[in-house]
């Protein structure tokens, strides 16, 4: 079995075998991470493909300062968040168009989906929870999904988000408190601005 150092070396040399090994090893992890954030199976598949394209194209910039899996998680998270930001801009534009009677209105209701990392007795419960998670500020949302849904440790989440473990603990504490309030009050509750300002501890 290849060591990670040897695997990275072969990737940098353009080995197709090494790249196939990376895809086989991390495709489920990448897909699940994307799905947690974008909540669409089709979009998650497309983003996952983009993630591996970037892995192949950018492996030369990987310096080994973190584990390969952490680096790939970071790419998957970044691409998923970028997709969400673009989608929200399109939704706002679609809402404006719908006011003026344009037939090409963009549907803004979140789709139903079943995340392979979450098991519920009823599908509706998963949909309710993920809609609540989606109302969290971005950094709380990502930290919560990586830790509670994808199962990463505090240390692993801190590596992906490039912040301290204490900051992750704080983000998760605030995320859980905000989720409790959202679920108690309904989905119009806004605990903090979505673009929560980063403090020196975040």
Description of the molecule:
- This protein is 66% helix and 0% strand.
- With 202 residues, the protein is mostly helical.
- It is globular.
- The protein starts with a helix and ends in a 17-residue tail after the last helix.
- Keywords: DNA-binding, Sigma factor, Transcription, Transcription regulation.
Biggest beta sheet attributes: none
Give the strand content.
under 5%
- The overall strand count is 0
Count of the domains: 2
Task: Identify the CATH homologous superfamily of the largest domain.
Answer: Winged helix-like DNA-binding domain superfamily/Winged helix DNA-binding domain
Number of helical segments with 4 or more residues: 8
Please state the structural category: mainly alpha
Mean pLDDT, all residues: 80
Q: Helix and strand succession?
A: HHHHHHHH
Q: Tell me the CATH architecture of the largest domain.
A: Orthogonal Bundle
What name does the CATH topology of the largest domain carry?
A: Arc Repressor Mutant, subunit A
Helix content: 55-70%
Q: Tell me, what's the shape?
A: globular
Radius of gyration: 18 Å
Name of the top-level CATH class of the largest domain: Mainly Alpha
**Poorly predicted parts:** 92-112, 188-202
- Tell me the distance between the termini: 38 Å
């Amino acid at each position: 079995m290849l060591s990670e150092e040897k695997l990275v070396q072969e990737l940098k040399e353009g080995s197709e075998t090494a790249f196939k090994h990376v895809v086989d090893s991390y495709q489920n992890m990448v897909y699940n991470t994307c799905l947690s954030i974008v909540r669409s199976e089709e979009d998650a598949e497309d983003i996952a493909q983009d993630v591996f394209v970037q892995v192949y194209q950018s492996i030369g910039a990987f310096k080994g300062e973190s584990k390969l899996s952490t680096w790939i998680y970071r790419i998957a998270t970044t691409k998923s968040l970028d997709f969400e930001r673009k989608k929200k801009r399109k939704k706002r534009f679609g809402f404006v168009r719908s006011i003026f009677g344009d037939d090409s209105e963009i549907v803004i209701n979140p789709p139903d989906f079943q995340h392979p990392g979450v098991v519920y007795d009823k599908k509706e419960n998963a949909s309710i929870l993920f809609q609540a998670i989606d109302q969290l500020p971005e950094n709380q949302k990502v930290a919560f999904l990586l830790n509670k849904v994808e199962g990463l440790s505090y240390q692993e989440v801190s590596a992906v988000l490039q912040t301290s473990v204490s900051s992750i603990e704080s983000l998760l504490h605030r995320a859980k408190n905000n989720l409790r309030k959202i679920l108690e009050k309904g989905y119009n509750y806004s605990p903090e601005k979505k673009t929560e300002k980063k403090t020196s501890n975040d």
